């Protein structure tokens, strides 16, 4: 056991010692011609390089597994038996050197998880009640502790800012490289970097419970989860290696050519085939992690690549989930009246009133004095502006106070309502002064992203929403949505997902990861656009930490590229075997050259997979429809 451990720990030095001895043998054969030096150098090179190979083959046999090392080990022993020391030395060196390069390049494909792990915070500045600070290990922090993070420091916990402000880089969590301004009340993630300012943060999650820790754990598990292609190849390899052994024995029996039989063993090594699929899987998932896209394993990559139907929730997914003023029709030339409207709406906690107050914030700052307001149930609010009543509410409120709309104003009102906007009317001095349309705005990147999804091979785009039909139709009409269903409960959405699946579609449901959990779990693939909530990470197959459609385009494109890359690698591996067999039949390929081609094919599939590390989707830029833009005041 100690000898085996020693050999494994020193495999890399053994590889390069073997190379040096092979070179020494050739130099002596070509120039100095000292007796016995050439064969001795090659024999020693063969023995020391064969040691880790044979030990691995024996370990695999104990586990009842026929490994690639078994084929190489038998071939080396056979080469020794016929005195082909040069061939055995080259074969063992190439095999070890190929393994060395595989480890180096595979380590690079796992670079995303490695960089995440290195970025994990280890210490924190704990702020005591008396204002004093102390440096503590992050593992000693508890929920409710307040930590101090200065510019250049790393956030050690998930929590909320209790004091201070600054710009925080959350690229390690969300993939968003642009720093985000954080102020009191805002949430922050462990692992984020404070680029400017100083923050006091109250911990809500610490240690292994932080979003950052869960991301690392999820990506590590995902990279080890096998895709269907990997599972098939693993099963195939269980029968392939014994088959090669049988074929080599048959070749020797019928040809009586031991060298040929040994060459068959070397050429039969399925290295590129075995490594091609997992390296693509690791590189693809690593790319996703780097860009804030958490994909839960190779099987998820494969399923996402096959998706032809994307089903979207509306609120918080296609839209921002935040009510804003989308349009405003003016019938008064006196815009100073807007200060009065802002004061009236400021007195209300209704979502529409809050949206209007925010939109008219500049006018509110210009207002002086307080305003007495009165709430009229079911109609709106009444205030006083320049000693005259100011009515802010629905049409009933205006009608009840003697204000009627002209035909044009009626048309404007119905047009805004048909577009799915909730309308607020402003009456003053017996006339309609303004109509404000409030709506949940479509995310600005959605139109271009949906077109890109179509180009990526998504055939059906469906919207399911609990909102009313008029609002749903208004949103769908401005986007490339193929099908829309409104007035749905969560259970109704699940029924539609199952209906699409019964039609033979591969369905991915895109939601916010909280109220859409049943649909996320039912679909072939659940995609949560959910800022890293526990529910999103646990329920969905894919989590988009940025909660953006740019990330959705990236995820779909990455899955398809990864799936295609896996198929390319399998094709390369099969063609390599065919090439070697043809070369063997026609006498162009021998044991050492065959091993060289074999190791070269492994590197080819690895380098091919590494192209996925730098993958970025192409998203066309399209103009945002006018009705999606905020109205200016």
From TrEMBL:
Pfam families named among the record's database cross-references: E1-E2_ATPase, Hydrolase
Topology versus the membrane: Multi-pass membrane protein
Catalytic function, reaction form: Cd(2+)(in) + ATP + H2O = Cd(2+)(out) + ADP + phosphate + H(+)
EC number(s) recorded for this UniProt protein: 7.2.2.21
GO cellular component: plasma membrane
Cellular localisation: Cell membrane
PROSITE patterns attached to this UniProt entry: ATPASE_E1_E2, COF_2
Span of domain P-type ATPase A: 118-220
Record key words, sorted: ATP-binding, Cadmium, Cell membrane, Ion transport, Membrane, Metal-binding, Nucleotide-binding, Translocase, Transmembrane, Transmembrane helix, Transport
Gene3D superfamilies given in the database record: Calcium-transporting ATPase, cytoplasmic domain N, Calcium-transporting ATPase, cytoplasmic transduction domain A, HAD superfamily/HAD-like
Transmembrane segments: 12-34, 40-58, 65-83, 89-107, 236-254, 260-280, 570-589, 595-613
Domain of life, source organism: Bacteria
Keyword Lipid metabolism tagged: no
SUPFAM superfamilies: Calcium ATPase, transduction domain A, Calcium ATPase, transmembrane domain M, HAD-like, Metal cation-transporting ATPase, ATP-binding domain N
Major subcellular location class: membrane
Molecular function per GO: ATP binding; ATP hydrolysis activity; metal ion binding; P-type cadmium transporter activity
Family classification: Belongs to the cation transport ATPase (P-type) (TC 3.A.3) family. Type IB subfamily.
Name used for this protein in its record: Cd(2+)-exporting ATPase
Originating organism: Levilactobacillus namurensis DSM 19117
